[in-house]
Design a protein that fits this description.
226 residues; five-stranded mixed β-sheet; four-stranded antiparallel β-sheet; 46% helix; globular
């Protein structure tokens, strides 16, 4: 009986020791678990650190966006500069295409024509192509100029001329003109042909008879002086 009690006591003690060992193991596990928990918290802080890194990346992204915006602004600036350069180029082109003033006189509008005959030559002369002579607000062409257009290089002093109207009138048909027709040399500079109607008049200083005035002059017959 005593032996049985001792066996039971030993078994109980053993069981208790095992139980204490088990409890101790639980306490030891708890401590590491707590430590592990702290490490876990540190790990969370590490995650926050990672978030911080992400934040840095975000800052870099913002900087990149700002740089991109700056780049866009720069590109816009370059486009603006290009536009200004283009506008300036247009001004330069306008300046280049502009015509330079010249001393050349514009050609006169086509006018009435008079036929000039000389030897075997017949020339139609536009009386507006000679230098204009004005008197009393009327435009005239000088008989001498019209003759020299038809006979380039001619010398008035060696020439003489008679006149004929479009209706066939000829001053030689009048007795008062017999002594002045044909008109010779420098006196031809005194004859004025009205540009608007081809009427032939004479400088009053030449003292020509009225029969030498020819309405609507059609022909000047020129010949060499004898």
């Amino acid at each position: 009986m005593r032996n049985a009690f001792l066996s039971w006591t030993f078994a109980a003690a053993l069981a208790c020791g095992l139980a204490i060992a088990a409890c101790g193991s639980d306490d030891e596990d708890t401590t590491p678990a707590a430590t592990g928990g702290s490490a876990g918290s540190a790990g969370s802080a590490g995650s926050a650190g990672t978030a911080g890194t992400a934040g840095t990346a975000g800052t870099a992204g913002a900087a990149g966006s700002a740089a991109g915006a700056s780049g866009e602004a720069g590109a816009a600036g370059e486009a603006g500069a290009s536009g200004q350069a283009g506008a300036a180029g247009s001004v330069d082109d306008a300046g280049t295409d502009a015509e330079e003033p010249t001393d050349a006189q514009p050609e006169a509008a086509a006018g009435k024509k008079v036929t000039v005959t000389y030897k075997t030559t017949t020339v139609e002369v536009d009386i507006n192509q000679t230098q204009v002579f004005q008197n009393g607000g009327t435009d005239y062409s000088l008989v001498s100029d019209v003759i020299l257009v038809a006979i380039p290089g001619g010398t008035l002093a060696n020439l003489q001329a008679n006149f004929e109207a479009s209706d066939g009138y000829n001053p030689t048909s009048k007795a008062n003109c017999a002594s002045v027709v044909p008109v010779v040399g420098d006196k031809l500079t005194k004859g004025w042909i009205t540009r608007s109607n081809r009427n032939l008049e004479w400088d009053p200083t030449a003292s020509m008879p009225g029969c030498l005035n020819v309405d609507d002059l059609a022909k000047i017959m020129v010949e060499d002086k004898p």
